[in-house]
Design goal:
By secondary structure, this protein is of the alpha+beta class. It has one domain. Helix content is 39%, strand content 14%. The protein contains three helices and three strands. The protein has a three-stranded antiparallel sheet with strand order 1-3-2. Helix 1 crosses helix 3. The longest helix has 15 residues. The protein is globular and about 35 Å long. The N and C termini lie far apart (30 Å). 16% of the residues are buried.
Length: 88
C-alpha cells in the first residue's frame, strides 16, 4: 500500500466514522488474496502508529517503519470487515 490517510473530519475523538483505516487495509488484503498474493500487504507506517497497527491489525514490523500484514492476520481482517462474504 502506498498511502492511506483519514480525512480531516474523521480524525480524533470527534471523528464521524470508526474503522475507516482498518476497512481500507482489509480491502487491500482481500485484493491481495484475490490476486494470488496470499493476502499479504506491506506499508510504511508513521512512527507513532506502529504500536497501534500491531495491536489493532496484527501488523508486524519488518525494518524501521516498514510493516506488513501476513496471511493469517489478513484473513482475520477480511472476515472482520467483509462479514457478508463469509456466509456459507
Amino acid at each position: 500500500m502506498h498511502l492511506i490517510e483519514s480525512s480531516f473530519f474523521n480524525k480524533g475523538p470527534e471523528k464521524l466514522y470508526a474503522g475507516v483505516a482498518g476497512n481500507l487495509i482489509a480491502f487491500a488484503c482481500k485484493k491481495s488474496l484475490e490476486l494470488g498474493y496470499d493476502g499479504i500487504v506491506s506499508f510504511v507506517s508513521k512512527t507513532k502508529l506502529i504500536d497501534h497497527y500491531e495491536k489493532t491489525l496484527g501488523a508486524k514490523q519488518f525494518r524501521g517503519n516498514q510493516m506488513f500484514i501476513d496471511t493469517p492476520e489478513a484473513i482475520k481482517l477480511i472476515k472482520r470487515y467483509f462479514k457478508d462474504e463469509n456466509k456459507d
